[in-house]
Amino acid sequence: MSGSALIVGGGAAGMFCAVCLARGGVECTVIEKNSSTGKKMMITGKGRCNVTNNCDVDTVIKNIPRNPKFMYSALYNFSPKDTMKFFEDLGVELKTERGNRVFPVSDKAATIVNALQHEMKRLGVRVLKENVKDIALKDGAKIVTTDKDTHCTQNVVIATGGKSYPATGSTGDGYILAQKLGHTVTDVAPALVPLTTKGSEAAQMMGLSLKNVTLSLTDIKKNKTLYKEMGEMLFTHFGISGPLTLSASSHIQTMEKDRYFADIDLKPALSKEQLDARILRDFSQEKNRDIANSLGRLLPSSMIPVIIKRSGIPPETKVNSVTKEQRARLVDLLKCFRLYIDGFRPIEEAIITRGGVNVKEIDPKTMQSKLCQGVYFIGEVLDVDAYTGGFNLQTAFSTAYACAESIKNYGG
Ligand SMILES: Cc1cc2nc3c(=O)[nH]c(=O)nc-3n(C[C@H](O)[C@H](O)[C@H](O)COP(=O)(O)OP(=O)(O)OC[C@H]3O[C@@H](n4cnc5c(N)ncnc54)[C@H](O)[C@@H]3O)c2cc1C
After folding, report:
1. What is the pTM of this model?
2. Domains (ranges, CATH) in the chain?
3. Is the C-beta atom of 106 inside 6 A of ligand 1?
4. Mean pLDDT in the chain?
5. Which of 112, 187, 213, 340 gives a 20 to 30 Å CA spacing to 320?
6. What is the pLDDT of residues 329-344, one digit of tens each?
7. Cβ 125 vs Cβ 29: under 8 Å
8. DSSP characters for 306-373?
9. C-alpha 47 chain-centroid distance
10. Distance CA 406, CA 22 (A)
11. From the CB of 50, is ligand 1 less than 6 Å away?
């Protein structure tokens, strides 16, 4: 059955939904407040767009910490394999990298965005550059008011995204629209976000990027390691950032001061004994040097004063007079450099938003509101978030597909 639909938001979910609807013969309009669609998509994956993860559905579910069950049906009906086929059918060549992350071969997010934009154009999807201010229900129809006009439609799809990176257009408007329609919105908080740490040590090492280190995050209250992974991280003026930190942050459900610490293993490939032997070897080559000048082969220069200070070894100590105990302290620090977490950086700096439209009020098979017939919510506006690896865009596509199928089949 064909009908009409108006999609509020021309981001990942909105554009994808428009293509699916138009292919099914539904007359479809996207309303986007930016001057172009897909602005956030353009900066995904550091401008390369990690478009999905080449894994099975159960693995995707394991990578969704918030409301994974809600996503079962949508993911089984539109899986990562379907996403890959969708883009390949549009002529986009894809490649799978470490961690099954899928990128366009071009290494350009624009390839993905252009593919969606061209397909919308080919199918005759209308794109209006307007800012939606209100949605009202009247005799079964939906009246959508923008800064420029009023539109009447059978089905309205809210695809306004979350609240992070507001310069891309996602400023949380969808939450207000949802509340006006009677929906509840769970508390929104940053996820996949840099972390602030106690003290000034991180600031002293600002700009230092560490590769092949292990970061583990511990919840002191629960006495539990929440996250442990090897990879890349970064020190900043406020604390820590980089891929490992962003992933770790997603495991913090409730941020409380003094509740979490991060341990960095700077030499994960070496046991304590091996590391001690390595230090002894380095020291034997420069017996009369100050310790502060003899760690250059082991540590980046901006880290040396911080480590020396923590170790309590006077910096002018000659390496040949470093005691076994002092060396043991050094080894302990290199294997476990602990930083206490102070808080999240603001939501504006988060990759995604945790919280959103309460999924209890949404039909997981169709993404239709259980409160207002013909109103749908897709993508990040929903209270669903995932870890890094292409899982958030997959969530956007799967929810968009579920919604489009429902409107195509029953929404006329
Ligand atoms: C820096 C960064 C990198 C990321 N990298 C990845 C990655 O590599 N892989 C991955 O899976 N995920 C990544 N994400 C997350 C991913 O981008 C989002 O989860 C995804 O874009 C959500 O899609 P969406 O359509 O729900 O929302 P968005 O893509 O945010 O789209 C929402 C759209 O709605 C429009 N809009 C909002 N309000 C209104 C209104 N009132 N009227 C009209 N239009 C409106 C906005 O302008 C916007 O264009 C990244 C996010 C960031 C910030």
Report:
1. 0.93
2. 4-188+351-410 (3.50.50.60), 194-344 (1.10.8.50)
3. no
4. 96
5. 213
6. 999 999 999 999 999 9
7. yes
8. HHHHHHT--TT-BGGG--HHHHHHHHHHHH-EEEEEEEEPPGGG-SEEE--B-GGGB-TTT-BBSSST
9. 14
10. 13
11. yes
